[in-house]
Amino acid sequence: MIQKLTKKFINEPSKSTSEGKESSFDTPRGLEEALLSFLAGSSTGKSSSQPSPLDSICEALALDSKYQEVGKVLSGSLFNTESFGSQKHWEGTCLESPEQWSKVRLLLARLLEECPPEPLLYILLVKTNLRTGPSAFPATVQTAREGLAACTLETPEWLRDQCEKTLAVSLSAMASRGSLDLSDRVKYRQQAEKILMSLLERHQDDPIVLYNLGLLFAEDRQYGQALKYARAALSIAQVSFGPASALVALILSGRRELKSALAVIDYGLLECASLFKHLLILIKAKIHLAMGRSHKAIETVGEYLKGVQPADGNGSQDTSTLEAGRLWQNLTEAFLREGRIKDAEVCLGEMAKVMPSSPDYLFVKGLMKQKEKSIGEAIHNFEKTLALDPSHAPGALALGDVYRIRGGSDIGKQTGDLVMAHSLLSDGLRQQPDEHMGWRNLGLVCKAQGRMEEAKKYLKSAVSLASSAPVLSFMFLPRFL
Prior knowledge:
Layout: H1 2-9, H2 15-18, H3 31-39, H4 53-62, H5 66-73, H6 87-91, H7 98-114, H8 119-132, H9 137-149, H10 157-175, H11 182-202, H12 207-219, H13 223-237, H14 242-254, H15 258-271, H16 274-290, H17 294-306, H18 319-337, H19 341-354, H20 359-371, H21 375-388, H22 393-407, H23 410-415, H24 417-431, H25 436-448, H26 452-467
Helix pairs in contact: 1-4, 3-4, 3-7, 7-8, 8-9, 8-10, 9-10, 10-11, 11-12, 12-13, 12-14, 13-14, 14-15, 14-16, 15-16, 16-17, 16-18, 17-18, 18-19, 18-20, 19-20, 20-21, 20-22, 21-22, 22-24, 22-25, 24-25, 25-26
């Protein structure tokens, strides 16, 4: 079908265009939304005279004035700042389900194989790769480079700039991966910074460029620079920019300015799009916990959850329901820290209603069993977590910690628990390199094994990271093109 449409719309001129008729894109619609509608089968059952979303995509890219037409398509998206920050703006450009992104990714890859090089398709493929997960990041950088190479002298300036922004974000994402050597991470970060700075010289009022710069510096713990750019992104956007509010608050929390961080979150919640409200609520709860006010954290999450609709009963869940599950997860962990097992069990039960048998649910269940001193069951749940999601960093770090503790016993020494702990903690830290407790535990494992030089190195890293650790890792913040 794709090949047929490609021949019809890409390799042949559009009849409607040559005859001066309006294109099928006279009504603005997000390109991602069109792709998702096609994948969901919304075009089935239509008459042959009514174009499907994929028809429209191919036709738009074939028009002589294709970039102007595509501009209409992307009205209200991150490619057009006129409606920046509106609820429709965010919801129209975010496909929250990883399964949906994977399907869109396959479709775009096929289109790129069968069509002439089109920078816009490369950009959209990068977006899908970023949402698919860290395993796709290396391919993302290569795709972004190919998109920039596809630009010609006829490519409009705005699209070339967008390709540069796409490459910078891809490099920044790669720099955040703990599985890379430090020298490679530094190289990617420097390349991303150079591109973003160049874009900023030409577009000083672009909140997305400013936000990405702030995130880049924040991940490197250069909080002075990070705060400057993140605050500028908030100021220039002139509307509620939820992720920028989250970034400013996390930077302030890393500087131990918790009251100021809380004020930023409260202000951001006033007009925040619902798509990002859960993120701000989570950070607010984490700030309260850091201030020793667990009751306020529980109250914050509880009040928000009252307004979240439950699953529809047909097995499908919207994004807000899934995010409610993650908030129940954090509430459960807060109760466990206080030793309130019964309350934690209630919250875990609510989480199970939303995300049963998910890696996160099994992870929290493992934490509960560990708190109850049921070490065997804790290990079982952590192992199931990693079986479902091998890249689940918290699960690897938690399981590694259990083996570390057990490795100090006679049984642990006989079964090689310290060796297992070292391997798991190392794996977890490759996925989440800013987790200071992971470095602490790895240092203690090396100390128990008599590897004193490594132990000193890791414990020093733990102290350094802990002194500037935000209440929530910067890795949880979204990246934008």
